[in-house]
Amino acid sequence: MIIPTMGLRFEWIKGKRSLIHRSLVHRSLITFITLLSLLNTACERSPSETETGTETGTETGTETGTETGTETGTEDPDAPNEREEGWGYYQDSDFYLEESHTSIIRQILFLQEEEPGVVAGFNLDGRVSEDDDEVTCGHSDLEDPEGRGGIDNQFATLFRLLSVIVEDTPQVAIQGAINEGRVLMMVELLGVDSLQNDDDVTLRIFRASGRPLVGNQGLIAPYQTFYRDYDFPMSEVSGVQIRNGELQAGPVDFEIPMDVLDANFPMTVLNGQVRMKFSEDGSFSGLIGGSVNIDQVLDEFAIVVSGNEDDLVRPIFKANADMGFIDGECQELSLAFEVNGHIAYAVHQR
After folding, report:
1. What SS3 class is residue 159?
2. Are 123 and 152 in contact (CB under 8 A)?
3. pLDDT tens digits for range 77-107
């Protein structure tokens, strides 16, 4: 299968390994694919206590619950002026939410088709499209492993072919950015009575700051404390339900901080969806997905890279856009990624 690339064919890239043009395409693909992936998570213990982060399996390690970030951010306009029920005071004017369950996203994984046409994701547009659907620019929807149709995850189809070129470089770069604390995202659930069944939960997604400690599995160790980063907006969805340990929320637009390889800028995810499956130890696995405006991301990309690298990859991604149909052209690319997280503590500020 050849991906339509407006004249840029992968056989040409792979066959001319000595050409500098190929190395630029390779570097540009790695950087842009990595950006797209960074959409890109009931604990009764206080974050001021010392915790032993022992995970099910092989990861063990003693972590201090008072390990905090170095950025102080700005004041929270929603913080209470006086001590109120449900707010626990951490130190000085910093506080945490006592009746909440907070996780740090510590792993973001690429998804590829398990077999042709089968991949995890979300039905973002509420349609089941065939390959003659004008609204999706001729890209048919997929089916997830559970047999649900209408799945919008065109990036997974594209990445299956691009992975021949970029190999595992984007995955390694993403994990490094997370472990180094450059891309820390937290998922906070408010009003949680049970992680198995609950009819009314509020979901928050926000950026955090801190210096994470990494366990011997190569992932951020659980039960650490991080500060909410007020330089980035927080997204919130209320009225969310948990059924049999699984939560799904959306649609919601949110921003993801890009700070990896040559790029550093916020990326807006449109029509965002989140699915989380909780384990007995409070950790979760799930999916996060949505769509991104290709021109918007590449215009930001062009600012932080040299030369015309954005022009090299733009035709590839534009030709595979399947959402945001305007004036006969799709402006957005659908995507989804596997995410895994574990219990952490979020400190807010007045």
Report:
1. helix
2. yes
3. 444 443 444 555 556 667 778 788 999 999 9
